[in-house]
Amino acid sequence: MTRLTTEDLIHGPNDLTAYDKQLKRITGLGLLDLALKTSDMTLDQYGSRAESLSRVAVIPLTIGRGVISDFSEKVAELGCYLGLPCRVTKARDVEGWGEAVAGGCEMIICADDKTFLALNLVSRRVVENGAATGAIYAVALSAAAGGVAERPVGVLGLGPVGRAAVNRLREQGARIIVYERDQEKQTDFLSNRNGIRGMGSVDEVIKETDLVLDATNTSDLIRVSELERRLTLSAPGVPLGVDDPDSVMVQLIHDPLQLGVAAMMVQALA
Ligand code: 2YG
Q: Who contacts 109 (Cβ-Cβ below 8 Å, separation ≥6)?
């Protein structure tokens, strides 16, 4: 499980309006559109649900390796950008929960070192970051590609994010090729999933398709200089797996937190 650093957050999108435009340029959809598409929710449905919220609390948790500075702030900033009344509690941990619930919040977002959740206290819906992240990055890849039905799509990494991405891409009719560094894990994964092909290396995946979702936490996975065709890369994995993200040979969808959190918040409202 990747643990974000403050560095990752600082290097991520700091101007959400600009990031929204960049997503629209690549996928034809903005941040909220992608999150709505992932939850199959209309803007009107979202609007009325968002209106019913009086407060969304992000609670810093000191458990384990402790608070990541700017993590809760970035989550709250994203919530506000999506039009939700989102703020970081003054107190942390249990005291922060008391502040949030006493303050009448209907949704709480918090993360320890293992689990990152959005909890809707009214509907009791609980959304996990990995599942939401894999789904929205699959939707973004499909949007950028103009649809993936009957097309080969590569998924790198079979952790919670990669598996959620595989599920969503399968629903969209993609012909999926996977590569997982732990080949035993890959074999297990494929044992009851017919129709999905497993590869022995990243290069073999890229030979088969220029639509790739990188859900690994490996940094030097894809060398742009070796690409023969332009790659559409949807990359929830942190650190980023491509060595030259600004190259014209890569159409890149990537951030350390934002798309996954947008998907969590919308899904928690569904
Ligand atoms: O409240 C805090 O500041 C800390 N307890 C947050 C700890 C988060 C640890 N988890 C991660 O860094 C990642 N698994 C979060 C997911 C990254 C986006 N896919």
A: 56, 57, 58, 59, 75, 79, 86, 117, 118, 119, 261, 264, 265
Per-residue pLDDT reduced to its tens digit, 177-227: 999 999 999 999 999 888 999 999 999 999 999 999 999 999 989 999 999
Task: For residue 254, count other CB atoms closer than 10 A to its CB.
Answer: 22
Q: 260 CB under 6 A from ligand 1?
A: yes
Does residue 236 have a cis peptide bond before it, meaning omega lies within 30 degrees of 0? no
Structure tokens at 125: 């819906």
What is the Cβ-side half-sphere exposure of residue 95, based on CA atoms within 13 angstroms? 4
Report which residue type is found at 31.
L
Task: Confirm whether pTM is higher than 0.90.
Answer: yes
For ligand 1, what atom is nearest to the CA of residue 110? Answer: 1
